[in-house]
Amino acid sequence: MKQIHFVLQGKGGVGKSFISAILAQFIAKNSEVMCYDTDPVNQTFAAFKALNVKHIPLIEKGASKIIERNFDTLVEDVLTADNGIFVVDNGASTFVPMCNYIMENNLIEMLKESGVEVYIHTVITGGQALNETLNGLASIFEKVSKDNVYVWLNHFFGLIEIKGKSFTDTNYFKEHKEQIKGVISIEQKNADTFGIDIRNMLEQNLTFDEVQNDDSGFSIMAKQRLKQTQKILFAELERCVA
Fold it and tell me: pLDDT grade, residue 62 (50/70/90)?
């Protein structure tokens, strides 16, 4: 079995790398996972050393623009692998180039014909970025994939409500229900406890397992909160993705 999970969203700073790291850790429980970071600006995902993330350089020395053909390296790695599951974190600056590359090369159909299951993950967040992340989702439906799209609801920046309704109660969701394979929720937690612990874990580029090590520097209660966070997120993924 071969799968590839693309994490795509045109808005930066909404949790794409966090989602990629969660997804990779969840998959690694039962399968071999190969991780890729295609962000030319902020290689946050690649900084997770425990996940052995491969960085795909998209801006060559002396160049000033993204070279889309460099995505070929990633595709060839997927096609030549005997099996395994691939997680690809794509930066905001490469959202449009990646979408164009997928569309122009008919990549989704090519991968499927080669026996690769293709999934798209995107994130919607509350607060000021709500409309922009919704536009990113719309672009994915229009340019990338008509099915197998996972929507992550990141409530970290505020509850996600559209005209007083939750995402799954909106007409937009109902219109695209057949295209959305699953909705995964990152619930809003106490910013002074859970929020700080998650931020510290991300700033140090640590996995949930690394946090639990004796020398991680996290307090007993911080470890407990992060263990609880992992349990909740993995349960969401078990429900939607497994």
Answer: low
